[in-house]
Every structure is written in structure tokens, then in C-alpha cells.
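Bench notes, afternoon.
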Amino acid sequence: WELEGFLFPATYNLLPGESVESVRNRALAKFNEVMRKLDFLERAKRSNLDPYEALIIASIVQGEGFDERDFGKVARVIFNRLSINMPLQMDSTVLYALRERRIALSTRDISISSQYNTYNRRGLPPTPIGNPGQKALEATLNPEPGEWLYFVTVAPTETKFTKSYKEFLSFKAEFKRNLKAGLFNE
């Protein structure tokens, strides 16, 4: 049984001699507590979402969002793309498949054969790609209204959203300039 997505990300104080199983159970209990508090299952169903798919989306929101204030917009981009059967093209899902964490993908990366490669397949990956926090879960249930199809984090504190592919390309160029200038080297 895969636990990805079900272990709530939080600070857990470890007790001397505490077992891994005990820590896992606390993270699962915290997940269940937050899900109840958010009324996640019922709210997902009311929004015509399968709760597990909503959890997958929340994990992508968590993985993609640099700033929690943008989570609602990131969720909206995902929903907008799904609604028109557009590939999600999320770097976080490819990096999950590669078992890596970094800021940018290469052409080689996006050509990998994986169910998690949302560049070359449509729809959601088969499982969550991480453990979403409360803000990502909430953003998935209540995404910000908008027509965005694209976003690029152009600087560590700035993500730009657009529905225009042309504007997206200009954001991508800005990101590459900032990456080369060392803005993401922290």
C-alpha cells in the first residue's frame, strides 16, 4: 500500500526510541484530522471530483507552487487543462518519476517513458506525487477563478500566469534569463 499523499507534512517531535511505524501513524492521523477539518471528501464530491483525484491534484499544486498565495491559481491551471484534455505538462510530475528535485527539466527529461510524465500523456498521474499541505488541499477544493492555461515561476518570489501561449513563451524566456543570472541558486 502506497502512502504517498497520505502522510501530512508537518513537524513531528520524535520521542526517544520511537519506532518508524509510530511516526508514520502520527503523520497518517494528522492527515485524517486535516481531511476531516476541511470536509475534504464531501467538498470534493460536491465539486464533482473523485476525492483521490483531488488528492493527486493537491499533490501537484504543492509540488508546483513556489508561493502558497499562488496555489489557487496553480489549481485552476490544472483544472483548465484537464477540462480541454490538454496535457498537464507539470515539471513536478516528471521530477517525481525521475526521483529528483531541481528547478528545470531538460528535453531528455520530458521524453522519459513514465505514467508520471504529464508532458507526453494526458490526464492525471496514477498516484499523488507528494504529500500536500492544508493550503494545497484547500486550493484544490476552491481554486481561484481564471482562464489561465500556463504559469512560470520567473523568480523565486514571482510566478506569472496567462492563457496566452505567446505570453507563456516570454515568461519562459524571463525564467531562463533569471536562472542563468543565478536568481534560483539559494
